[in-house]
Write a structure and sequence with these properties.
The chain is mostly helical. It has 18 helices and 8 strands.
Length: 389
């Protein structure tokens, strides 16, 4: 079987599985079926035929037909089977432990969203938290986040030394300490209000930070989640497991965010021209194209941007980009526009991404330590035969 034959189009995957598109997207979100962009049309996705065959009950036959042949790309990564009760995307909607995320973002605090994701709704792990007397301050936001995580990874005990309740209290302590490092000294307000103080954002606009944190906390399985859960499964301290996820974000997610931020800066001056230039150079506009599991529109985007009251130049970035590329905005673009609206600086969108995802990565580490099944992965050796040199 050639590398191209290992991937099939959506229509064929749906026919073989006998499911609707939303179910296929859910399988991808949960990591049960691998997907990749179609090299001939990046707006479309291809799906791993071996995963589709396995879901159809043809796994053994499919595997037998691939007799120890070297593979490349996503198919070479092996397969990780992870059970999670943290979040689910179905019918184009994102749910945190069964609760609609968009609805939550209308009113709940980041603390409340964290308690939902951590399955800590009965007892408040944020109660009676006190600030650390020697907080890490100074430097860029993401540097402070990593510094706090690194210090706590050295200080704290293994996940295996905790029961569920103490683990959730440690998650709250860790999140609060990170926020303190960003916000600096001041009143013990809600997390988003403390961050607004650190970002020098007007109190009347702090609700946008709250919405960004709640909406961006979690979005299913990706490399960062896998890294955090693998470290948690190995018994790392909670901060160490989360640090594995945050540093993984520095790869693709933050690189893409930097590109989207740069595009927003360019497009503010000439939105139509910038979109057409990017299409000519790259075949698409940065920040446009919802994740496949959502369908065409990521519901988190309007939930964040509609209350933002964007100025005319940022509205033009959104409308002209959608018109030029024919795709709806991604959540990365929503974060970039929000960061620009709040004047958070060139790294503001990435800062919001990391701080929001920190809540979800904590959820996955806690979930893996308390309720997660062992992560089963297969590594296929495709190197030289022993003694061949």
């Amino acid at each position: 079987m050639s590398a191209d034959e290992r991937w099939i189009a959506r229509s064929e995957a749906l026919t073989r599985l006998g499911v609707k598109a939303q179910t296929l997207y859910a399988y991808v979100s949960r990591g049960r079926i691998a997907a990749r962009p179609d090299p001939t049309d990046p707006r479309r996705s291809l799906y791993a035929v071996s995963d589709v065959a396995r879901m159809c009950g043809e796994g053994e036959e499919a595997e037998a037909s691939e007799v120890r042949r070297p593979v490349v790309g996503a198919a070479a990564r092996g397969e990780a089977d992870i059970q999670s009760s943290v979040s689910l995307i179905v019918d184009g909607r994102l749910f945190y432990r069964g609760l609609d995320t968009v609805q939550m973002s209308e009113a709940v605090t980041a603390e409340a969203a964290a308690r939902t994701l951590w399955d800590a709704r009965e007892a408040d792990p944020f109660a009676e938290l006190k600030p650390r007397i020697d907080p890490i301050v100074g430097g860029a936001t993401q540097r402070r986040v990593l510094a706090v995580l690194g210090r706590r990874a050295i200080e704290d005990r293994s996940l295996r030394a905790h029961d569920a309740a103490s683990l959730k209290r440690e998650a709250a302590s860790l999140l609060s300490e990170v926020v303190d490092s960003v916000s600096g000294p001041g009143p013990r307000l809600y997390l988003h209000q403390r961050l607004a103080r650190g970002f020098k954002t007007a109190e009347r606009d702090s609700h946008l930070i709250r919405r960004a944190l709640v909406l961006g906390a979690e979005c299913g399985l990706d490399e960062a989640v896998l890294a955090a859960r693998a470290a948690a499964g190995g018994g790392a301290p909670l901060a160490g497991a989360v640090m594995a996820g945050v540093t993984t974000l520095s790869g693709r997610a933050l690189t893409e965010m930097d590109e989207v931020t740069a595009y927003v800066g360019e497009a503010r001056r000439d939105p139509d021209g910038a979109a057409r230039r990017w299409i000519g150079l790259r075949g698409g506009v940065p920040g446009f194209g919802a994740a496949a599991e959502f369908g065409r529109v990521d519901p988190r985007v309007p939930a964040l941007l509609e209350p933002a009251d964007l100025p005319a130049d940022l509205r033009a970035v959104l409308s002209e980009g959608e018109a030029a590329g024919g795709q709806a905005a991604s959540f990365a673009l929503a974060l970039a526009l929000t960061a620009r609206r709040l004047d958070l600086g060139p790294t503001g969108a990435g800062d919001l991404l990391v701080l929001g995802r920190l809540i979800g990565l904590l959820a996955h580490a806690v979930d893996q330590a308390t309720d997660g099944s062992p992560i089963r992965a297969r590594l296929r050796y495709v190197g030289p035969e022993p003694g061949s040199h």
